[in-house]
Amino acid sequence: MRKGHRRRVSRVLPGFLLSLALGAAAGWPQYIPAARRPFGDSFAKDHPERTRTYDLEHILLKVRLDERIQSVAGTSTLELRPLHAGLDTVEVDSAELRIHSATLPDGRELAFEQSGERLRIHLPGPAEPDDLLTITIAYDGNPRKGLYFFKPDRDYPDREPQIWSQGEMDDSHYWFPVYDFPNDRTTTEGFYTVNSDFTVISNGRLVGVTDDNALHTKTYHWKQEVPHSTYLVSVIAGRFEKYTGRAGDVPLEYYVPPGTGQDKAMRSFSETPEAMRFFEDRIGLPYPYEKYAQTTVQEFTFGGMENISATTLTDRTLHEAVSEPQSSSVDLVTHELAHQWFGDLLTCRDWSHLWLNEGFATFWAAAYREHRYGRDEYLNEVREDRERYLNEDQQRYRRPLVTSYYTDPVDLFDRTTYQKGFMVLDMLRHELGDEAFFQAIAHYAGTYRGQTVVTDDLRKAAEESSGKDLGWFFEQWVYKAGYPELSVAQEWDEAAKQVRLTVQQTQSLDEMTPLFRIPVDVEFLTPGMKKTARMEISREREEFTYDLDQQPVMTRLDPDGRVLMTVQFPKTGAELLYQLEHDPSIVGRIWAAGQLAAASGDRAAIARALQERLQRDSFWAVKQAAAEALGEMKTEEAREALEAGLKDRNPRIRQAAVRALGGFFRDGQADRLVRKLYDSDRSPVTAAEAAYAVGRIQGRGAREFLEKALRRESDQDVIRRFALAGLRDLGDRRGWDIAARWARNGHPTQTRIVAIDALSRIGLREEKTADLLIHLLDDPNVFIRQRAIRALGEGEFQKARDALNRIARTEVHSETKRAIQRALERLGGRPVRAGGASSPGPSAMPFSIPSFVPTWKGPRSAPPASAASLVP
Coil, strand, or helix at residue 399? Predict the structure, then answer.
């Protein structure tokens, strides 16, 4: 065996390795998987790219939007060219819209018919590819999705009247007839007529505004001259404060609710100019549109949506200064801005390649964080997103990054698309090196700008730019699934002055999960030297030897945690303590902190070492990890160490310390500490965490404390939400009535969701819980309905089956359909495919958020303390 090289050996793992393995090396976690369910369900099928029969070149909308009767009415004019000879029927997507006519420019009416979500228009004769067809469709409707209407009512008398659209994935055709699939690109133009006191924000440039004083309306004329996919069409109407800026020659516009004020608005958006400059420089393409607008709207479906030149954001991204740094808009703002290149200028050709939109935007948000705040911030993003992805893979399902097998496109908006997509780009960056990687991305963006793309376009561009064969990389990381699961053993040969590493890939091999080729760095630190080498792992079991001057005091496999894998690597308590103090990478120090919580040895010494990191480490996430480890130890020394953490100047650290103290069940001293922090901390997020900790500790008078906390107002209602979560964990049956009051209409959506979660847990399988949840199935807020549906399934309420089947017949929102299917399956019923576009119904709003915090369009989860983690 040559030194520093490998040899193939038998697939037998030494017994001592199995018995001593504590966890991962250098920040790599290990998990005990739950039973994975397959990705998809009984309704899943293959979704090939949609075949086009024409090229849509321009859309002209002339519509009246009326929030009072929740309607849209007007015309959609489509300019298109046949892709093949003899086109005699133009098929357009249209759902729940009343079609009045389809006409040619000369006034001739065309025959048409509607079937499901398709409108088929019959041409007067066969058309050829040289023909430019212009068809005007007159229609009206009361959309149940795609376009959302708000106005004050009895429960929400202070609600601002507002209208906004949301087209992704394929919801634009619910408010205007159009070809609604991402593999076509078109220019767009809109004449939007609204109340005279409304402002309209849309794509592209504002051509003009016309007043009609007699009708008390205004018509805004917007025009987007860069072609784009139709799901990116956006219109927003309402009353807004407007603030402006510039990034070079690009006008920047910020629209926020009346009364927000410039300070609060710019607290969310101030990074936009610098982020735009950074992306232009790194991507190698200037911002490609006439302006960039960011508009915050109420009850938005997601954290944000990257509509071309006009991003829509939830108004929950607006926050008070006192809520920082836990509440921050930087990731949301930069994620959506990055989409203006990756997602808008280059758009995935079909949803199976969604990661080319979402994985890229997630990567670029992290890259901006690295640019703005330093390398450690980037590495921490990689670490956190790896944890999120591994949780999905091991606790839910495993799938390839690119797959066309699903039920609804919304199924693909998961941690595989976002977090694994980001990590694949980071691993490509690590494989090529920074200079070659960013050159490759610039080549990809420049080559395919203005086009729809698939993953192989990225591979070809990266190979052309770098000169490397990357087929193996894309095959295992994109088209296959899973990741390497390594077991590593280290032996020192004193006579030969050699260290030997035995590495085994232990993942179960199947059609999806292969043996991986893993180029990975390993670093040895001895008292006299540091040695770094590159290992190339590709077999089931291999050995590598390295010459050193002395036995290593620390071995760092993949020092910065750049490879998606889990690693078992046994280390003694002394080695972990050394690594906690001396590892130069935050990834290694965070991992060591986590491992020490369960390590054997002097527990007091371990607590002192963790307290040292908690108080003195240079990076906040290491301090958080130390607090979490102390919370897992639950010793008196650990509690005393956490008390010191409550005095940290950074509210994120105080929050981590109080969260850890929440695990000290029925501990009177811990209870006193968290209540004291609740009373004194200026950060509403940290105070909220303290309220939640009271419920978890379950000390004397906890319910009364939480009832009082429910009366405390705070930014984004965060304290009330956490107090409800505390009631849930407290389990006091008297908390059911309290939670039921906060679940009613009239309260903020997020607060209601946590209240539903609390009463469902407290009153699990109780009749009154079932009755309340069944009542909520008719709530006008779709996310309230979604949470009620899930709770009915989790509670195994058989009496809900008829009600679930009833709403299944008319439900249009994909996530709600999926929730109904899963609830009925849990209740032992036959799986149903919930209904879709059948007949117009009352307007409802989709609202995808977890119980505690606003999120992105995708699945980025955050701890309950993050009051504003948002982004698509």
Answer: coil
Sorting pLDDT into bands at 50, 70 and 90, what band is 852?
very low
What span, in angstroms and rounded, lies between the C-alpha atoms of 387 and 419?
9
Residue of 275, 288, 289 whose CA lies nearest to 247: 275
Nearest to 761 by CA among 791, 718, 720: 791
Using alpha carbons, select from 818, 859, 860, 853 the residue that is nearest to residue 316.
853
Q: Are 274 and 290 in contact (CB under 8 A)?
A: no
Picking from 61, 67, 302, the residue whose alpha carbon sits closest to that of residue 166 is 302
For residue 460, the tally of other CB atoms under 10 A from its CB is 15
- pLDDT at 519 > cutoff 90: yes
- Tens-place pLDDT, residues 52-69: 999 999 999 999 999 999
- The owner of tokens 């491992």 is 595
Residue 776 Cα to chain centre, angstroms: 26
Tell me the whole-structure pTM to 2 decimals: 0.92
pLDDT band (50, 70, 90) for residue 835: low
| Per-residue exposure over 201-238, b if at least 16 CB sit within 10 Å of its own CB, e if not | bbbbebeeeeeeeeeebbbbbbbbebbbbbbbbbbbbb
Structure confidence by residue, pLDDT tens digits, 15-48 = 222 222 233 334 444 444 455 778 988 889 999 9
- Round the average pLDDT of the chain to a whole number and report it: 91
Amino acid sitting at position 146: G
Checking if the pLDDT of 395 tops 70, the result is: yes
Contact 665, 697 (CB under 8 A): yes
| Cα→Cα distances 240→134, 203, 220, 223, 337, Å | 36, 17, 15, 21, 21
In the CATH hierarchy, which fold is given to the domain comprising 54-180+184-339?
Answer: Immunoglobulin-like (2.60.40)
Cα dihedral 278/444/290/365 (nearest 10): -40
Domain ranges within the chain, ordered by starting residue:
54-180+184-339
SS3 780: coil
Residue with tokens 């260290």: 499
Q: Is 70 exceeded by the pLDDT of residue 869?
A: no
- Determine the Cα–Cα distance for residues 552 and 567; give it in Å rounded to an integer: 19
Please give the pLDDT value at position 312.
98
3-state secondary structure at position 70: coil
Say what the pLDDT of residue 834 is: 55
What pLDDT shows up at residue 832? 62
- Letter for the amino acid at 599? A
- DSSP helix/strand/coil, 466: helix
Q: State how far the alpha carbon of 190 is from the alpha carbons of 233, 236, 412, in Å.
A: 10, 12, 31
Task: Report, as an integer, the average pLDDT of 682-704.
Answer: 97
Maximum pairwise Cα distance, the chain: 98
SS3 content of the chain, % helix, strand, coil (to 5): 40, 25, 40
CA 34 to chain centre: 22
pLDDT at 784: 96
CA distances (Å), origin 159, targets 152, 475, 707: 5, 51, 27
From the list 55, 99, 145, 781, the residue with the least C-alpha distance to 408 is 145
